[in-house]
Design brief:
Length: 221
């Protein structure tokens, strides 16, 4: 264990973030911006309470994750590669299936887009992507597809992430329905306003209804 730990503190939360959503759980918890100037070695009771209430995880589980997280990452944050390794522990799929998709999931977990997943972001992402309601999980899925994080999806963004989804799902006969073709078909269904861009609302609205596409698109079942 290292000496310096950076953990989210209730005192250091900011409420400014562009990834606002429609009043679901995410809006209130997306404020896990960690003030990097302030370090603290342990979670205070207030932090635990805060994280517990925002993620819906019991306090002892928050502490358990905190311990696991800092054990391997004493600086309290994961870069892309470290995230890939840590994320494997959370999933049942064999590690080789997760390699491609974990890069995209990293983008969703890194809420403030600073290139690291801090503990608060991790816990939030874990809680929402594994236990959140469908809308919240699709909200996180959208971020996986938004490669340039500009708030909407194009066909060119959807295809590569779908390819990673094929790997995750262990789909063998890719040529039967190649990701590029799925992206095109999906685009037709998602892009209700027909402007070549898919907003988060369009993405969530359609995939809430269509379970078949959702199974292929959403990494968070
Ligand atoms: Ca971050
Ligand atoms: Ca985009």
């Amino acid at each position: 264990m290292g000496n310096t730990k950076s953990v989210p503190s209730a005192e250091n939360m900011t409420t400014s973030h562009e990834r606002t959503s429609d009043g679901s759980i995410i809006e209130s918890v997306e404020s896990f911006t960690i003030n990097k100037k302030q370090k603290q070695s342990e979670l205070s009771d207030r932090d635990i309470q805060f994280l517990s209430s925002q993620t819906g995880l019991p306090a002892d589980e928050v502490l358990e994750w905190h311990h696991k997280f800092f054990q391997d990452n004493p600086d309290g944050r994961l870069d892309r590669v470290q995230f890939g390794k840590f994320y494997r522990l959370l999933r049942n799929e064999p590690p080789e299936r997760l390699n491609l998709i974990s890069d995209h999931i990293f983008r969703a977990f890194d809420v403030d887009g600073n290139g690291y997943v801090e503990f608060g972001e991790f816990l939030l992402g874990f809680a929402i992507s594994s236990r959140g309601d469908l809308r919240s999980r699709l909200d996180y899925a959208f971020e996986c597809y938004d490669l340039d994080s500009n708030g909407y999806l194009t066909e060119g963004e959807i295809a590569p992430v779908l390819r990673a989804m094929y790997t995750l799902l262990g789909i063998q006969h890719v040529q039967d329905y190649p990701p590029e073709e799925v992206a095109k078909d999906l685009m037709n269904k998602l892009d209700v306003s027909k402007d070549g861009r898919v907003t988060k609302d369009e993405f969530i609205y359609y995939l809430m209804k269509d379970g078949i596409y959702r199974n292929t698109v959403n990494p968070f079942h």
